[in-house]
Amino acid sequence: MAQTKKKKIIGLSCGRVNGNCEILLKEALMAAEELGVQSEIIRAMELRVKPCKGCEACTIALGRGKEPRCAITDDDVPWILDKILVEDCALIVSAPVYHLRANSYFEAIHERMLPTMFRHPEITEKRRVGGIICVGGGEPEWTPLGLTSINIFVQHTRKLVDQMQVNFVPRPGAVLMEGKYLKRAGQLGQNVAKALMMPMEKVKYVGDETEASCPVCHCNVLKVPGNLSEVYCPVCWVRGTIYADENKLKVKWDEDDIQNPRFSTKFIGKHLDLVIELHKKFFTEDQDKVKELIKKYIAYGKIIKP
Ligand SMILES: Cc1cc2nc3c(=O)[nH]c(=O)nc-3n(C[C@H](O)[C@H](O)[C@H](O)COP(=O)(O)O)c2cc1C
Questions:
Q1: Buried (b) or exposed (e) across 214-249, using 16+ Cβ within 10 A?
Q2: Which candidate, 113, 56, 58, places its Cα nearest to that of 85?
């Protein structure tokens, strides 16, 4: 009898090998496997991860109608991105905080995603699900942008099912002394596994929320670009209005923005069209002028090195 292929969760661990991020990720995946899914783990710290050099080879190729590829070819990031962005799987990202937001291993992978996104625009349709684990060694005051920074990545391709922030685990293995976090990670893994087996229309976010949480990424960081009472979620660019309901302040979120947040296919498509247009203009009209104008900046300055 033909075997049906098991659905898969890929876990990306950006902390130390056998560290707290990895332990929590494994706890989540072991619990998910109890529900009949399979799993794979990518350890970022064990692989070659280089940061984006800003060469723009990918955007220039796009502007010229060619296939966008990253110019860095001697590391593992393109492979990681193909696995976690393109493959038919759920994704759980587990990353530590080193300074209020997710660490640079995570961010280096995150910032290299453009060429993969350009080649596979269909992944922004968010037909797959995801979860996030964020780990900090100290008090909650020192992890305020952890989940938010990881959401910037995950929101491009996944409908978020659950996310958790862990604090007070300074040394590798410290999380093993925190039964409540291990339990919560198992719950998160099972929530992602259950969502993986549901039709997408039925998938709902089941993680923690506060009264001011964005209805898309469920983070509670608000940006105030102009005057109050207008606020935005800085990740999803969903607009909200603060209003008083009797003695309580609340946020009313814009329904159109909820349907078309920043990382929706429509919003990203608009942005990509603009990027292509700006690059074309640069190559056809501005390049010669810039070559002239930049001379005095190239000539100026005492550049210092160690
Ligand atoms: C350089 C450095 C800076 C850190 N800064 C923070 C911080 O700002 N806030 C925090 O909560 N934890 C901070 N930590 C603690 C780590 O988040 C914590 O040790 C975590 O468990 C690491 O995950 P891992 O065990 O999976 O590697 C820092 C750790 C390092 C190495």
A1: bbbbbbbbbeeeeeeeebbbbbbbbbbeeeeeeeee
A2: 113
pLDDT tens digit sequence for 246-287: 999 999 999 999 999 999 999 988 988 888 888 888 878 888
- The Å distance, Cα 209 to ligand 1 centre, comes to 24
Pocket test for ligand 1, best of 92, 98, 149 (most atoms within 8 A of CB): 98
Q: Is 137 in the pocket of ligand 1 (CB under 6 A)?
A: yes
Residues 282-291: b if buried by 16+ CB within 10 A, e if exposed:
eeeeeeeeee
Q: Which domains does the chain have, with CATH numbers?
A: 8-208 (3.40.50.360), 212-258 (no CATH)
pTM of the model: 0.95
CA of 136 to the centre of ligand 1 (A): 5
Q: Which of 16, 135, 164 to mutate to test the pocket of ligand 1 (most atoms within 8 A of CB)?
A: 135
Model confidence pLDDT, tens digit, residues 102-148: 999 999 999 999 999 989 999 999 999 999 999 999 999 999 999 99
**Ligand 1 proximity of 78 Cβ (cutoff 6 Å):** no
The Å distance, Cα 92 to ligand 1 centre, comes to 19
CB 221 less than 6 A from any atom of ligand 1: no
